[in-house]
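Morning - AGV inputs below, output right after.
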Amino acid sequence: MKKKIYFNHDGGVDDLISLFLLLQMDNVELTGVSVIPADCYLEPAMFASRKIIDRFGTGGLDVAASNSRGKNPFPKDWRMHAFYVDALPLLNESGKVVTPVADKPAHEHIIDTLRATEGKTTLLFTGPLTDLARALDMDPTIEEKVERLVWMGGTFREAGNVHEPEHDGTAEWNVFWDPDAAARVWESGIEIDLVALESTNQVPLTLDVRERWAAERKHIGVDFLGQCYAMVPPLVHFSTNSTYYLWDVLTTAFVGKSELVKVQTVNSKVITEGASQGRTVETADGRPVQVVYDVDRDAFFDYMTDLAKKA
Ligand code: AGV
Ligand code: CA
């Protein structure tokens, strides 16, 4: 049986590649998609998502727009990436957009889709958790329809990836954008798998990966990977604030093939106020989450490239 997945993302290059890869997975049935304007602008991210579904999907999906707003905005330069993906000729060849926009905002779309889907659904979130927190506030009974939440978010190391004024650098961005939403989801009974910076730090975008995709660009899906990852800075000499990792793609790959990674249980809480806001910390009386802390890097890149070849 196929795993049922609902996907909420925030329009970054790795979010949009995740959508593309989900559409190639034989063992996954994508039941719904929604877009939150966190690390993106909403309009190009909605268009790019609909065009990716048109080009690489099999129809039957609509895409819901979120009307959620965060506490700590993402840098504008990063939010621009969705415009570049949306403009790719590969996604605009047909001259039309067929996949419709859902008539409900994302948090209501989550509720409706979970209710309308037989059995339980795995939630895959690669941006902040705001829409899920709002869905849970609106209808807490959806918890029983959720298999588990797989989330790209957080870190239990000292070093996060938020380098902003008035912050101590310990948070990961998806938690930092809306720390209260993460804390709300932590309060729920939903099982949480966290793909944290511990593991995503092991999958930076590097030049050898780019060269591989260039060499194999005769496959249209591999060319799409190469075009998209040409838009963001790779790790060359040392890691900077803008260095790109395959954060969300690793999270998506974990859903498709869990053997790629190692997982351990951590009892944790979310800090919502002050200079460490958005930090996830281990604490004995915290709620348990399953943390992905290690990945087979080569097997991961093989898996995503092989998926892309199927397109
Ligand atoms: O913190 C990682 C999250 C992921 O969901 N995002 C990007 C991924 O989609 C925020 C982010 C952190 N550093 C970034 C980010 C960077 N250098 N460029 C763009 N986005
Ligand atoms: Ca993201």
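Note: DSSP finds 14 helices and nine strands in the chain.

O.
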